[in-house]
Amino acid sequence: xxxxxxxxxxxxxxxxxxxxxxxxxxxxxxxxxxxxxxxxxxxxxxxxxxxxxxxxxxxxxxxxxx
Length: 66
What we know:
Pfam families: DUF4096. About 55% of the residues lie in helices and about 0% in strands. It is mainly α. It has helices at about 15-30, 45-55, 60-65.
């Protein structure tokens, strides 16, 4: 249900699981994006992936499936 991890323009994507954990951490804690711990990767990556998946309907498909 998630976009492919195949290399795209700009290189490899950071692991989806790591980024999703960062997104969930931010959501659960009510923190600002720049407060996402480094163990989840750069906060800008978490924010960009969250935003991109919101716009392209990925989150809606996951929610519907669950």
